[in-house]
Amino acid sequence: MVRYCLLLLLVSKLIISCTRDYPATAPYTIVAPVPPAKGGGLPVQEQPAAQKRLYLANDKVRMGIDLNAGGAITYLAEAGSNENMVNNPDLGRQIQTAIYAGPYNYIVPGQVPVNFWRFLGWNPVQTGDYYNTPARIVSYQQGQNTLYVKNIPLIFQYKDVPAECIFEHWYELKDNTIHVRCHVTVNRADTTHYEARTQEMPCVYLNGPYYRMVSYVGQKPFTNDAVSEFTTSGSWYYRYTPEHWTALLNDQGRGVGLYKSGEVRFGTDKFGTGRTGGEFDLNSGYMNTQPFLVIDHNGQYDYEYTLVVGSLNEIRQFAYSQPRPITRPEFRFTNNRLGWYYTNTHDRGWPIQNELNVRWERDSLDKPRFRIASPMTVWYANEIPKLYIQAAFQTKGTVARLVWLRPGESNEIQEDPGRYVDFPIVGDGQFRTYEINTSQLSGWTGIIAQIALTSPETQYAYEKGSTVRIRSITTSSP
Description:
mainly beta, 2 domains
């Protein structure tokens, strides 16, 4: 029985790792873990520590966090029910935060990582590690409808290795929702600039009966257009979700929705062999938000989300009742990257001071190009007749390239025909406003999901030592 359970865990975790690390390195390098040696299997896990839960409850929902699981949410039930929906067979599940940065072969002196997970990289997990060692609690506080917890997460693939960062979570129960805020403070000794990776901000594991993965994945958001339902595994990668929510439901159509304002990168999947089981069984439904994020050695990061307990209609109507994010690019980089990230290049690091100061060249010549990319979002082309880029290029190159992605065309932004335009630049290091008349571009239509800046291949000879400083990217002249 133990061997069977380990096999189920191995298969389910393999699905997650092979898929979640792909977008972290796409579109250039796929990094997947190496399975354990023949006959080796996974190391034996220890029993999780005894639960130490704090609860909040009202007439609709009862929720709990566990101080022996990093203060993550380990209990969620509708009022009047004793069924805990949260999946807790080990400290890799729950409803929690996990962040990712390089290097992929993260080494802890004197320790050997779990072979199966050795390519996770620097991976602080709120709850603890593979061996079920609970993460450290620094402090916590409980109010009438609120909980606060501060903890030091652990590196998942090692045994009892505190990460060089602190997680803080604030939980607030209101009606049938739990609003969660998270603040991450990083203080790594390793000051290397690592490439952006996708994060689990948060990840949500519910029990086997919550196998129905429901999202809106169309291109008419907030019009009550038909939703889509998925019930098969292996589809985790990500779904473009322009109403900013996804849900896991049971056969009765009830469950939990995950709403995150402005977010469109949602992943869902299910693990195990069936649609039954409780909180300590391996069968599980899974959902997350997975934004790309540059994790600096000294960075600070904030995010928030809401869990909605109830029916599909209640979940979707909550999303519809929230303030709508702006539907055009309006980025002014005063003290934050605002979700922008880099592929095969990097900026000067944290803190951001009135500009993005980025290498206009490839970090590795083995990779075909670099990109400075916006977060994925929902913009309407007809609201963006012009794009203004306030930037100072220091380069011998004379041309830059704007690339854009429309939903449903590819998983990641690509320089496909009709999806980019080259524009002239002056490389003397002086700030200028570059105006791009997008209304004249034939491929600039419908929903724009993402934009990026890069250098055309014809300019590669001019890369060495080049930089760009970007103050703003907006739809009106600065």
